[in-house]
Fold this protein.
Amino acid sequence: MASPTKPTKAAVKPRFVRWVIDLLNRPFDQAWLDYQWEILEAMRPRLQAKGLAPDEIERLHAAWCNAVILSLALWRRPYACADLW
């Protein structure tokens, strides 16, 4: 599988860095939940607007979704009952 091009990485990196900082510092309230939903739902149209190939859009969107799901799983653990994890 080919990696994203340097311009694609450069365009995505600041948003990804901001997302990680927010995961570590923002309160997990409704505003945060709304923001996370916006980021997840807005990614595919943004990738499509860049004129990327459909297979590259799929790979990047899948990677983005995996990152969100992993974060959800990791941040959910402290709030789950021990026997449910």
User: Anything to note?
Assistant: The first helix runs from residue 6 to 25. The mean pLDDT is 80. Residues 71 and 80 are 14 Å apart (CA to CA). Helices lie at 6-25, 30-49, 54-76.
